[in-house]
């Protein structure tokens, strides 16, 4: 706020900072870690129109399952993941391996530590890049930077990256699961001898997410796209 020089109450980054401060003051834990893993599609082309005469959208992907019979100047190799058949293939079926490697190299250059990248379940270029977990504010900042880099590296290579949840019909959409943990004095508070090797606090934490799922969905999954 320019008048008070305090964080604007509706600024997501300010809210995240206050949440971290509240966690520390509560005595429950002194650190919360988050590790989001965003999924995204990489398309070869995207066309759309919405005018007085017609409405349409069309995405192009040479590796898409619907292009098994397409004719290309360089020939059709036949290597492409089927519908819901794209989880962890290797090249040449995974045509985007080297492009993701370029994205990771760029992420590392700006200080974002990466851990994994792979093709995801859907055909037509669905991918995932996983980065190392960090504190809430730092990870949120890194996530926005990560999306910016992924989109621009794709564009530099003549492609379009999108984080839309459902850009195509009939196959898996893109999600972003988030690894979460609490620590105190360097001790993982979620580790225990309960169900699944979890502590009672971890089970309560999961229960809290379920209890407030409707409210969380209001800002995390408010619509299809």
Automatic annotation (TrEMBL):
Limits of the GS catalytic domain: 12-225
A Pfam family hit: Gln-synt_C
Highest taxon, organism lineage: Bacteria
GO molecular function: glutamine synthetase activity
Gene3D superfamilies: Glutamine synthetase/guanido kinase, catalytic domain
Gene Ontology CC terms: cytoplasm; membrane
Family of the protein in this entry: Belongs to the glutamine synthetase family.
Name this polypeptide is given: Glutamine synthetase type I
Protein source organism: Xanthomonas arboricola pv. celebensis
């Amino acid at each position: 706020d320019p008048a008070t020089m305090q964080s604007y109450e509706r600024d997501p980054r300010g809210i995240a900072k206050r949440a971290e401060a509240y966690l520390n003051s509560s005595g429950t834990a002194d650190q919360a870690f988050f590790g989001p893993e965003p999924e995204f599609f990489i398309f070869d082309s995207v066309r759309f129109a919405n005018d007085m005469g017609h409405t349409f959208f069309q995405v192009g992907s040479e590796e898409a399952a619907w292009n098994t019979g397409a004719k290309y100047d360089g020939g059709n190799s036949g290597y492409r993941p089927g519908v819901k058949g794209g989880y962890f293939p290797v090249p040449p079926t995974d045509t985007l391996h080297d492009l993701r490697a370029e994205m990771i190299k760029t992420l590392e250059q700006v200080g974002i530590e990466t851990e994994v990248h792979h093709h995801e379940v859907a055909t037509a270029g669905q991918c995932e890049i996983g980065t190392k977990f960090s504190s809430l504010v730092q990870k949120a900042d890194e996530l926005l930077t990560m999306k910016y880099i992924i989109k621009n590296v794709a564009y530099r290579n003549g492609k379009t990256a999108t984080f839309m949840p459902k850009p195509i019909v009939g196959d898996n959409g893109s999600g972003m699961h988030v690894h979460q943990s609490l620590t105190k004095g360097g001790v993982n508070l979620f580790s225990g001898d309960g169900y699944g090797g979890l502590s009672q606090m971890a089970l309560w934490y999961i229960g809290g997410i379920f209890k407030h799922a409707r409210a969380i969905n209001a800002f995390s999954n408010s619509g299809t796209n």
